[in-house]
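Below is just one:
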Amino acid sequence: MIRYILILILTAGLAHSVQAGPWLREKGSTFTANSVTGTYYLDTTSQTFIEYGLSAKTTLIADIAMVRPRFGPYAGYATLSMRRALSSPEARSKWAYEFGVGVGWVGAETLPHLRTALSWGRGITLGEKTGWMTAEAAVVWDLTYALHVTKLDATVGLNFTEKTSGMLQVYAANLADTSIATIAPSLVFSPIYTKFRVQLGTETVLGQVANSALKISLWREF
């Protein structure tokens, strides 16, 4: 049970929706994000996040992550979800819901789960600059021990130029009597002569500043 709680708390801090929030992918389009984080104490995580536009109102999502703590067994999860629009394409505020199934693991133990989520987002302007805000409330339902993790993720982003953006993300999660909150500022830019966007940032769990992580992520749309 202790190992199970460990995996849920660790994976609850990972960003699920990157920056998409309630916005759906165009039919036939794909977005990928491959991320790696690491701390001074060599706790590392890796995550692959894929979105595919199945239709104008449906996006399929695959979210796979590995957690490698310096103490304890390796852990991870894989979740396949479907995001459906709740608002019209012309609406200023966008709403969407998600339903997913997946499995987590700690060492050799596998733990199936369900994921439900509701997301909101809208574009913003600050002077002559544009940006976005998103919020997502989610619950991960364990099917082995009948526990659940509640999550609330929020993102504010601003486009500094056509090729450079800044983001501030906050992830909060609760399991039973244990809560964590993570602050994650980052810079996203498009290097010349490449089709990728690069995200560079940090992730800091409140109360654990000494164990802050550096993050690098490669994004691509096609």
